[in-house]
User: What shape does this take?
Amino acid sequence: MGLLNIFAKPPAKLVRLPSGSFTVDKDGRVLVSTLPQAFPKEMVQDIATHVLSAFRSAQEAQIPVTEFIVRYSSLKLTARELRGGAIIFLVPQTFTTTAP
Amino acid sequence: MRTRPKILLVDDDQDLLDLYQEILSQLPSQPEISTSVTGARAMAMLEVEPFTLLVCDLNMPKMDGLQVLSIVRRKYPELRTVVLTSVMDEQFRSRVYSLGVDLFWQKPGSGEEIKQFLDCIESLLGREAQSGFRGVQSKSLVDIIQLECISHNSLVLKITNGTLTGRIWLHNGEVIDAATAELAGEPAFHKILSWRSGNFESLPAEPDHARTIYNSYQGLLLETAQAQDEAQGQSNLAANAKTNAAPSGETGPPTPLTPLCRFEGVEFVLALKPGTEKAFESRGLENPQPMADWSRQSLELYRSLGERMKAGPLQQLECRGPQRHLALAQHQELDFCIGWEHEMSTEKIREAMKKALALWVS
Assistant: This one.
């Protein structure tokens, strides 16, 4: 019977936007995280890469930036520069709960 | 001859697809219904033929509903979209609506719910059939009111201009009331008509709404036109006076960016035009090129991150620094980067940014 499982549909899973924070060093390594384990690690890495890249491009353009607040319609991302790395906070936004 | 609307149903459960195909085929508009068990197949079908409506599940393997919808909204903005799902979660509902989806429906579980669902779908298809008047960019609000009054229509016009909203009540072709956030009656009507651009929405009539305006629509429109002529004359005089005494941060003749520069707390304004030529306009910056390049790069970076996370469109990017703060946002096809004084709080900048961009609208 187990053979039939080979043809079973792969499980469908929608990824919830997480609530929590994590810190990354200047090389993009995640040091500490309070994000749910269900949130994909690749996505955390992706966020870290984008944020560090944004801080670096500001530095290269000689625009001093210590904090980014990125407001998407469903998520607020706050990233603070931390000795070359960053601490990143994620707060999902819904119609009923909107972070300040 | 009226063409039959086309509906594309997307769900990974073939049994459900068969069931909904049967249910939807009973609609009075007799739609042609196609089905797809994967998001990728649905995308391929949309490439080949035009559809009126896409009904999509959220929880699907490989390419989930959010991925399908974010691509569809970008590639086919005219396509009506409905999410039909068993996932009842406030976060997903918000994310779906933030993508610009028309309806979010829980999979109906009773005969009554199926009836309501069918009514909604029929209404969406009906709206599509009448959509020759969708996006009346070349018509002013005066034209729209005249059209509605001449047709003796009863409805409520909801008008949005940036952060401002107003309503005009029409009953049997007569303007009976108007309201904005602070005004009501005739003053509200004149205020709404002074807005030069925005969006409008026709809402169902409210026949029991109290009448406060007794002037004819022709009289109201004439008074508005006179008031606007007077205001234009006064603003020309004021603009001439201000040009003669421009603030120290501004150089050159006044441009559309000048009013934004005069907003309290603004240090500079940069408007980035879309397109490969990377054109921009700026006020208050001596060397705007590096700021323009960096703004484009940052917006692109965070937009791509938002798409990957399916977090909805980027609304605003705020950058805090030791010298000044920056706020970047898209508005009317342009990307704006505004420099704000360092003393301003994040919340204040957020509010001020909304007001400054609304100023650009009007």
User: Anything to note?
Assistant: The first helix of chain B runs from residue 14 to 24. Chain B has a mean pLDDT of 82. The radius of gyration of chain B is 24 Å. Chain B has eleven helices and 14 strands.
